Amino acid sequence: MDVDSDRSRKPATAARIYDFFLGGVHNFPADREAAAQVAAMMPTAPAMAKANRAFLRRGVRYLAASGVRQFLDLGSGMPTQGGVHQVAQEVRPDARVVYVDIDPIAVSESLEIIDGNDRATAINGDMRQPRAVLDHPQVRKMLDFDEPVALLLCAVLHFVPDDDQAYGLVEEFRAALAPGSHLLLSHGANEGAEVTVSSTQHDEVQSVYDRRTATPAGGRTRDGVARFFGDATLVDPGIVWVPQWRPEPDDPTDFADDPRLSCIWAGIGRLP
Ligand SMILES: C[S@@+](CC[C@H](N)C(=O)[O-])C[C@H]1O[C@@H](n2cnc3c(N)ncnc32)[C@H](O)[C@@H]1O
């Protein structure tokens, strides 16, 4: 079987739909079809993906500059367009990064991208099973949990719509982190439906993920997002629309007029 016909049968995944929105090349026909369905209902979807990835870059740069040397990136997608290892190691060459994703193809593409970098690795894992991720031999080898770690949960918790499961998993990861660790989080906003598309269209966008991928999606309110931070101290400016988190001159400008249209909440907190 040739590679192309094999790929043409792959079902869509959230990782590769996102890659398509970022302008990446790590996606297949089913991903592009699903992305087109989402974009038809929510034309801002590609700009939302880019604004989110720009926040991830700014956040990681901030964390590395603050002295963080270890990064556990859950739901990492593919480290293209300024991946975490690139950004972190530019600031701190000794920074170590573990990428974790539920999509095995995203993981194999990630391993190709980081090939030759002995301070970055990628594993196939489900963040809904924190113990399995934390005990994974590659995670144990790369990260020292006696030292602070930055836990990155960027645009991924909306793929865990069940509240008990989502808050429970974050709690379990947090419990494994040393004092002074950080939580970087971005999350699809429930309030987004009020400012961008009708709530029917919002539901339809969610239904594309429900029907076409193995990871159903659902937004949360700002208060719901704040709950993930628990007793962490939020770094300025707190939980804000994603383009508002410490913007930089070379950021995308799509939502300059109305940051609410990004439909994504973002924040970084320092754990006690
Ligand atoms: C929108 S992408 C975000 C990628 C990256 N974190 C970023 O913000 O640029 C969401 C990623 O989460 C992954 N994902 C969804 N559910 C997951 C789970 N339960 N465990 C691990 N990864 C998951 C998807 O495969 C996808 O790669």
From TrEMBL:
It comes from the Bacteria. This is S-adenosyl methyltransferase. It comes from Asanoa siamensis.
